[in-house]
Design goal:
The chain is an alpha/beta fold. It has a single domain, classed as Rossmann fold (3-Layer(aba) Sandwich), CATH 3.40.50.300. The protein is 29% helix and 26% strand. A 6-stranded mixed β-sheet has the order 5-6-7-3-8-9. Helix 5 (170-184) links the parallel strand 6 and strand 7. Helix 2 crosses helix 3 (111-124) and helix 2 (97-107) packs parallel to helix 4 (140-151). The longest helix has 15 residues, at 170-184. It is globular and about 45 Å long. The two termini are 25 Å apart.
């Protein structure tokens, strides 16, 4: 078996607010391997986003550790190896849709192919007609789909998505998830999705559950 793309070992995250401490994640241990499709299920405020931020190297644990054995160190992760779809699309407001999507390729030193890759990614998600629009000209659902198109750029080994269908109606969300899984079918990238939607979780290979910062990784098979 290959090394994990990412693993946490007793990783905890404590935040300090108003003179009080809040344990958002409690000694969580987990492993993600290439090709896996994992849903993290839990209500709002349960710790899903906190765990994703640690897995993506956007934050550091207060105690315990996070490592990326298959990828390297924290400095090696972005933009080529890990892609993140945040809960809010976080598009750069002064860049067009296609310019936002091509950013990972540009930052990764691939300027010659960036535009072609970006247009291909938009076409795969049915967004090519939005290529020239600015973020403020997009609906919330369109902006989230563009953020997913950006995450699918290049050959990332780990894609982390935080409530990627939260701003999209049910039928559109199902179609988008179909496109996402189809696009990843021929790739060895791991996909980890934080969600409270059981319909999304059912499309994944395994489900983890988190509640009040306690992570349960007992394997459950999706449909």
């Amino acid at each position: 078996m290959t090394s994990p793309v990412v693993e946490t070992i007793d990783a905890a995250r404590i935040f300090h607010r108003g003179g009080r401490s809040f344990e958002a994640l409690r000694a969580a241990s987990c492993r993600v391997f290439l090709g896996e499709r994992i849903a993290i299920l839990g209500p709002s405020g349960s710790g899903k986003s906190t765990l994703l931020h640690l897995l993506g190297g956007l934050d550091r644990p207060t105690s315990g550790r996070v490592a990326w054995p298959e990828l390297g160190t924290n400095l090696d992760l972005r933009p080529k190896l890990i892609a993140i779809v945040p809960q809010s699309p976080s598009l750069v407001p002064w860049l067009s849709t296609v310019e936002n999507v091509e950013l990972p390729a540009l930052l990764g030193g691939e300027p010659r192919t960036a535009r072609h890759q970006a247009m291909t990614s938009l076409e795969n998600l049915g967004l090519a007609n939005l290529a020239k629009r600015l973020p403020q000209e997009l609906s919330g659902g369109q902006a989230q789909r563009v953020a997913i198109a950006r995450a699918l750029m290049g050959d990332c080994k780990l894609i982390l998505a935080d409530e990627p269908t939260g701003q999209i109606d049910g039928a559109t969300a199902a179609a988008l998830f179909d496109a996402l899984l189809t696009h990843l079918a021929s790739r060895d990238a791991a996909l980890v999705v934080a969600t409270h939607d059981p319909a999304v979780a059912a499309r994944m290979g395994r489900s983890w559950r988190i509640d009040h910062g306690v992570l349960d990784t007992a394997a459950a098979t999706g449909s």
